[in-house]
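Hey, weird one. I pasted the Cell division protein ZapA sequence into the form twice and got a warning about non-standard characters only the second time. First submission, copied straight from the form history:
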Amino acid sequence: MSDTSRPTTEVTLLGKPYVIACPPEEQDQLKRSARYLDRAMHGIHSRGKVLGAEKIAIMAALNITHELLTALDSHRAGEQSLSDLSERLERALSKAGEPGRQTP
């Protein structure tokens, strides 16, 4: 399949359209991602401290990456907490099943 026959989707970032190669089954997710990025870029642009679109995009990418890493760290901490709780539960259940122990 040549590049000209690949399915594409148009997204808009800071008022500028971009045509992105994207399989049809991923277009909704691409559009959702573009809306999120566009909002982040508009937020940075509205502060007026950064002028160039490239710098705005880089700052937005850094902010979104920070959000992602914070969420991943939180998710991992939650998984570890569940793992610890599961181990405690397994130990408690194995102790409850030991001979000589009464279960209520």
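That's the output from the first submission. The warning seems to come from a hidden character in my clipboard, not from the data itself. The domain at 3-96 is CATH 3.30.160.880 (Double Stranded RNA Binding Domain).
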